[in-house]
Amino acid sequence: MPRRTSQVFESVYLMNTNQIFRESIRVILLHPTHFHSISIFLFSPLSISLFISHFLIYQFPQITSLTIDIADHLLGYPLPKTLSKTIFHLIICFPFSITFSLVGRAATIQAVSDNYNRINLDGKRLLMRSGMVWIKLLHTSFWEFLIVFGLFGVLIAGLATLPKILFAGGIYWRMFSFLVVVGFLGIAFCVAFAHIMVLGNLAKVLSVLECECYGLESLFKANNLMEGRRQTALVMALLGTTSLRLVECLFEYRMGNGISVWEGPVLVSMYSSLLVFETVMNVVFYHACKST
């Protein structure tokens, strides 16, 4: 097995983003039926819930207004419309993101690992093994969520207090001081959020493939594992996030111009397939890091 593993990992040694992208396509094309089944049965519920939340916001604009009013009452300043929409999407998608989505990620990670280890893929075995590691993924996702929640807490606390401090310091343009704080905190928040997202993606792979590594430990190990490869990981995360966002924008555009009945399932399939592809890229990236 060590000899076989070393031979397999030669193909992923010192990969850049472009090579990881091509390797991920190659892996998926080797077993298209399995990966397509994972996208349909395990990732589709998350995609459907996301598009339903977009539909609800489009049909009932007062949902966003209500979120903004609540934030204005609590903070003294209204949240940006985009942020209020994001919060609503998170609330709607949360139940599916910790159930079907995590099992789908586990199944995809197991499938790629089995491919590299020359193990024949079996759908029933994949599902059973994915269910067994689901609790580990949930534990890891909990810590990731806790850190992200802390980031949002820092952001909201900063938005609530720093403009008042600037006002007390002699800056009397209330909106100007608020925009300065949003710009300053926004940049720091985006950088921190991107790094946590990258760590979370790799930590989930570690939680599935390494027996005693999950939760906070997997996040620390992921941070050490991708040392020297952060740029590659950030570019991968940017490509994945941008692709998913483009599908969301396409859905919003078609919804505003009269979406056809057949377009909904197609967009759900596209979004689910991108989630599978993103997970495959993370597994390939993991093997590239391990082989260094």
Automatic annotation (TrEMBL):
Where do the TM regions start and end?
35-57, 87-112, 133-159, 171-194, 265-286
- Coiled-coil boundaries: none
Domain of life of the organism in this record?
Eukaryota
Keyword Transmembrane helix attributed: yes
Give the UniProt keywords, A-Z.
Membrane, Transmembrane, Transmembrane helix
Q: Which PANTHER family match?
A: OS08G0107100 PROTEIN-RELATED, SOLUTE CARRIER FAMILY 40 PROTEIN
Q: What is this protein called?
A: Gustatory receptor
